[in-house]
Every structure is written in C-alpha cells, then in structure tokens.
C-alpha cells in the first residue's frame, strides 16, 4: 500500500507552485522528481567525502570509492546481475546503448541483420542506423498494430540465421505499452542473436531480473527512478562485456600504457574511462534503496489504479483520443483532442500548473504510424494523486473550450 501523504512529503518540489498554482507534475516519463534522501545524498557527498575515486590512498578517496562501489552492488542486487562488474556505470540509457552499438562494429558484416521495434525511442534507433552504416548490416523493424502492440507473428518472420542483434524497449515511452520481452529474448536466442533491452521506461515501474530474463544487455537511467540525471547503467553478461571493445579511451580504463601499446583494465573499469559522476552514482544507490523501500509491487498496483481512473476520466472528454491502448501498459496516457495541436494544450495547462510533455517524445516513427505530429503525454508516478487527475481533466476541458 502507498501512504500517499507520507510519500509526497518526501518530495520537496511537490509542495511548490508554478504560475501561481500548485504544481501538478505529470511528466514522469521524461524524468521523475527526487526525494529529499536523494538530494541529501548528493549534498552529503560534496560536503563530507568529495574526492576522486579508485586513485588515492588518502582517506577521503577511499571513502568515496567505497560509497561508489557500494552503489554498484546495490544496483547489481536490484537488477539481479550475477556479478557486480556486469554493472557498468554510465551517463544514462543513451550512453549505454552507444557503448554496445559502437562495440558491435567489429562483430558485424555486410547483410547481417539487426531487429528493432516500431515503437523505439530515437536513442534505440539512431545508434543502430549508424552501426548499419559502418558495417553494411541491415535494420529490420517489428511492426505494431493500432493498439500499439508489437506484431509478434511478424517478429517470428523477421528472425533468421542472419539476425545478429535484437533491440527492444521494455516499455514504450510514447505509448506506455509493456512489450513481451521474455518471448522476444527467447526467440532471438533460438536463432543465436544477442538481445539488448532498453529499460529506460520500465525501470520506474517494474523490477527486472536480468538473469531470469537471460538478457544479454539491459540499460536504464537513474533519473527515471527518482535518481539524478547524467547517470545510468549498462548491464551486460560477463562474456559479452569481455568481448566488446572499450568505448572511450582515457584514465582508469587501462592496465598498462606505453607509446607502443596499451592494455585495458578488467571489467567494469574497461568501460568507465575518466572521472565519473561520483555523487550521481552514490545518489542512484540511495534512489534504488528508496524505491525498494516503497516496493515495486506497491508502486505498480497504485499506478495501475491511477491509470484506470485517468483513462476513464479523460475518455469522457468529447473528441479525446488515446494512442496506445494495450491492456498491458504502464501509467502513461498519450492523447490528442480533435482539431487542437498538442503544443497548444500543453501551453495552456502549464498556465494552470500542470506539467505534461507534448510533441513526438523522441519517437517520430510512432507518430508517423498514427499520422499525427505529436501527442500530449501525461505520465503518472506513485506520488501522484487522484485529485491531480481531476485537475488535469478540468484543465483539459478549459483548454478545449478556449481553443475550439
Ligand atoms: N525518454 C521521454 O520523455 P536518457 O535520455 O539517455 O536518460 O534516456 C533515453 C531514453 C531511451 N529509451 C527510452 C524508452 C526513453 O524513454 C528514453 C528517454 C524521455 O520519453 C526523454 S526523451
């Protein structure tokens, strides 16, 4: 059970006003708000143990290193990786995907095939297109239906001995659809292909078990999970991470450097060149603890109630159409109101203190599929309330009356 009053008190920003109105933050799919414990973790780091990690023998450096590595272990436990060094600390989902896409350059040859889905975020399309340009590999797309669900029989037809990689988001950011990733992984493995799951949108709602899933790679961003921006993970199976070449060269990722030859450090350091976002990683660990204390089952149950309530309420508005109507979805509602541009709705309701995202949501192929320029996207988190959904409804009715 979510104790909503208690939970909301953890988030200082939820008490603020925007344009003279109480903030109603419904843009959680873009980024989540941060509880005080996460903010404190960042402040504590800089006020008590700020120093560089893995480098110094002095006490501060050792304390910072320990806190940083402790966060890695929390993340290992959360995602259930077998080894802590299978968790690479990155700048976020986009960075993690690019590490894998760049690393695969030497493994692919002309006419090898890569499969993505029709509902990917640009960060799970563009790096693979760039990989195809470098290697001559071919990008194939699993199509979707009007409800925003992947056509799994078409996926079956795309898979062959030519398929080397499959990349799919666990949850679509534009539609909220939860994709059948276990089936996608199992079928890809049957033809010998590796699978990367983009968990950017699923991680705030679903606790994944990467070993049970048997995912080859799983990526996520801290900022979707009540953690700071500019931090994320690349989970990779040990054998894959050992095979992949490093993405960036620099300090910390080496064993030995001479002008003739450099040898690389062991995992995870091979992929962690340079001074990382130390405070951000430590605060990511705090955010994971915070979310687990609330409990992902509690979060999912409460957000499902919010989703059902909001869906019913919004559909009562004449001319409102929801995009992404799969039964299996997270608390995201993408919609348009007939003859009104999403940007105009977003601008008007912002004046009423309501934050939603408008536009193509970095998923232009999804918008092209529905032949629309974009949508309004309201995305709910475990700290949102039913009253806030009522405020959204009232604001939309007001916007509609003003614009029609
Ligand atoms: N989606 C949204 O408003 P970064 O920016 O690297 O933390 O995450 C990129 C990313 C990758 N995959 C999916 C499915 C995503 O949703 C996102 C980020 C935000 O939908 C910001 S564009």
What do you see in this structure?
With 404 residues, the chain is an alpha/beta fold. The chain has helices at residues 4-9, 36-49, 59-79, 93-103, 126-135, 152-158, 181-190, 210-213, 238-243, 278-294, 296-315, 342-351, 364-370, 386-403; strands spanning 17-18, 21-22, 24-25, 87-90, 113-117, 138-142, 163-169, 194-198, 217-221, 232-236, 254-257, 262-264, 320-323, 332-337, 354-355, 357-359, 375-379. It has a seven-stranded mixed beta sheet with strand order 4-10-9-8-7-5-6, sandwiched between helices. β1 and β2 form a beta hairpin. The radius of gyration is 22 Å and the shape is globular. Ligand C6P binds at residues 29-30, 92-94, 121, 123-124, 169, 173, 198, 200-201, 221, 223, 357, 361-362.
CATH first level of the largest domain: Alpha Beta
What's the total number of strands? 17
Give the tally of structural domains: 2
Assess the beta-strand content as a share of residues.
15-25%
Distance between the termini: 41 Å
Strand order within the widest beta sheet = 4-10-9-8-7-5-6
What is the assigned CATH homologous superfamily of the largest domain? Type I PLP-dependent aspartate aminotransferase-like (Major domain)
Q: How helix-rich are the residues, as a percent range?
A: 25-40%
Low-confidence stretches: none
Would you tell me which CATH topology of the largest domain applies? Answer: Aspartate Aminotransferase, domain 2
Question: What ligand species are in this complex?
Answer: ligand C6P
Please summarize the sheet with the most strands: 7 strands, mixed
The rough form would be described as: globular
Structural class: alpha/beta
Computed CA radius of gyration, to the nearest angstrom: 22 Å
């Amino acid at each position: 059970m979510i104790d909503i009053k208690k939970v909301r008190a953890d988030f200082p920003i939820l008490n603020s006003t925007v344009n003279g109105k109480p903030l109603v933050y419904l843009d959680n799919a873009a980024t989540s708000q941060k509880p005080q414990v996460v903010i404190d973790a960042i402040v504590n780091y800089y006020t008590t143990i700020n120093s560089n990690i893995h480098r110094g023998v002095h006490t501060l450096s050792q304390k910072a290193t320990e806190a940083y590595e402790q966060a890695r272990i929390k993340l290992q436990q959360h995602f259930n990786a077998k080894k802590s060094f299978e968790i690479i600390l990155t700048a976020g989902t986009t960075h993690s995907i690019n590490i894998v896409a760049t690393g695969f350059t030497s493994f692919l040859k002309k006419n090898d095939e890569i499969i993505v889905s029709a509902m990917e975020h640009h960060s799970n399309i563009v790096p693979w297109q760039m990989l195809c340009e470098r290697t001559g590999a071919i990008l194939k797309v699993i199509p979707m239906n009007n409800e925003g669900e992947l056509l799994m029989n078409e996926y079956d037809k795309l898979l062959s001995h030519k398929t080397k990689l499959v990349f799919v988001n666990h949850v679509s950011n534009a539609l909220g659809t939860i994709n059948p990733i276990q089936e996608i992984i199992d079928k890809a493995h049957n033809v010998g292909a590796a699978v990367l799951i983009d968990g950017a949108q699923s991680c705030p709602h679903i606790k994944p078990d990467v070993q049970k899933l048997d995912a080859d790679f799983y990526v996520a961003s801290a900022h979707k999970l009540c953690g700071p921006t500019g931090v994320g993970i690349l989970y990779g199976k040990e054998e894959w991470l050992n095979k992949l070449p490093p993405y960036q060269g620099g300090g910390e990722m080496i064993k030995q450097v001479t002008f003739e030859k450099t040898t690389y450090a062991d995992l995870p350091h091979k992929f962690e060149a340079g001074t990382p976002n130390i405070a951000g990683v430590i605060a990511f660990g705090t955010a994971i603890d915070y979310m687990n204390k609330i409990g992902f089952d509690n979060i999912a149950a409460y957000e499902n109630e919010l989703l059902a309530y909001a869906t019913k309420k919004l559909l009562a508005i004449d001319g409102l159409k929801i995009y992404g109507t799969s039964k299996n979805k997270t608390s995201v509602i993408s919609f348009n109101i007939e003859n009104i541009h999403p940007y105009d709705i977003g601008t008007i309701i912002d004046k009423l203190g309501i934050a939603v995202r408008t536009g193509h949501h970095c998923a232009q192929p999804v918008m092209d599929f529905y032949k629309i320029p974009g949508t309004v996207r309201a995305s709910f988190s475990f700290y949102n309330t039913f009253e806030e959904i009522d405020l959204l409804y009232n604001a939309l009715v007001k916007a509609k009356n003003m614009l029609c």
